[in-house]
Write a structure and sequence with these properties.
- Helices cover 74% and strands 0% of the residues.
- The chain is an all-alpha fold.
- It folds into two domains: 146 residues, no CATH class; 56 residues.
Amino acid sequence: MTSAGSGLSLLQTCALSLLVFTGASQFALVGALAAGGGAVTAAAGAFFLGVRNAFYGLRLSQLLALPRAVRPFAAQWVIDETTAVSLAQPTRRAARLGFLVTGLSLYILWNLTTLLGALGADAIGDTKAWGLDAAGPAVFLALLAPMLRTGTERAVAAVAVLLGLGLLPVLPAGVPVLVAALAAPVVLWAHGRRNASRGDGEEA
């Protein structure tokens, strides 16, 4: 329903769910489109959020040690849940089984519920009249909030919000989200400088 509220068709919604199997990236993409952003900026934001899966893949490639012919297909299922389940297993065989069961079940259920949601959105008509265009950002924030566990993470989120909201009036839709990605290196740089200053003070 979220993507339908952003103007995507039933076919586009299902294709996005099948090909981009990571919730945060999907919600970021449809949220940017709902805000009036272009396809390039929306895809760029989704890409940056999906980069973390590449790091998961590096760890899982060592743990699972799958045959080369299987790896391109297995990469589609490298998400938070399959990584967590695989890493929690005591043996490689159990890790492979956990990855397979988790990936297959989530992929089927995710795409099935996407189809049902898109069909439901078509049935109710104008999704904006029901406020579904706001569902994407709301769900994205709900996914993000539990991940902000440390002060540094919360500082990154706060600076990103300030950048995104502050640049909305002056930049095209979708671009402020990309600029907000600069929050991470800026906060980490400031955090490093502060730690270095403390270290110099202690030595003195």
